[in-house]
Amino acid sequence: MLYNTGNTRTPLLSMIGGNPLYTNSVEFILGQTYANEEGDIPNISETDSLTAPKPTFVTRGQATNVTQIFHESLAISYAKQSNMGTLAGANLAGQEANPQSELDFQVARKMDKIARSIEKTFIQGTYNKATKDSEVNKTRGLISAITTNVIDLEGKALDMWAINDMLVKIKNNGGDISNLTLLGTSIQISQINGSAIEAGFEVGTPYNNAFGIRITDVICPAGTVHMAEGEFIPEGTALVLNIPAIHPVEQPVPGKGNFFLEDLDKTGAGEKKQIFGQIGLDYGMEFLHGKFTGIKTTFTKPVGRKVVTVAEV
Fold it and tell me: What is the number of helices (H) and of strands (E) in the chain?
């Protein structure tokens, strides 16, 4: 229910949910950070080689993130459960009550809410590691995580050349550009298609990928980028993500699992239940991804294809 394939209201969660990771600790490792030494042209004589060069060392660091709690409760009265035969709205001949189970319906709606909350957290979440029980652990979302490959468009539209620049930037900083996905707003996606028409770039026919998400392939000089409309992407911001490197990290409760349904104490004529889960975001190394900021937030329609001439028209 959480990783609902084809639920376009949570496109990121649908795309990364097929390969979740698990942890038994609130804090988990994303990877090791280190800087490679620059290569040079050796200038060593035979005599020099008799003495070993002075050793150098590569210092490693560790990137981490945390899981956080998602917790919802629901209550269903006995009166509501016994009244499922009552039809709401127009009473048409042959109509049956829907849903058949009020509990199943309410649980499904709570899971929808939790999935949307996770989607927003994975995009916009800000990091906090609790130092005591009364503090809140907050998983770091993608917007705050990406710091290396950032392009500020300073109010200009997000176009094909900007995407091409991002591919080059990610590649130069050690990222893999063979399978990147741009998550943007509907205005940004429309503008990218418009700029492709003007610049003569190629935009593929939209299709639904294996996760049920509508994808358009954009072909730039530097490579191909998948493009999809995201949720909770702030206007003026867009993300270029290496989806295979991103995983949800679940922290199950021993003997219960994760996002489990549990009875609460009965206090009246009905049932009270809670759903409890802990999850965080593993985005790998942040230099695998890119972020656009300062994007123009209005759409300008293309007027045609731009043509460069070498003689008077």
Answer: 6, 15
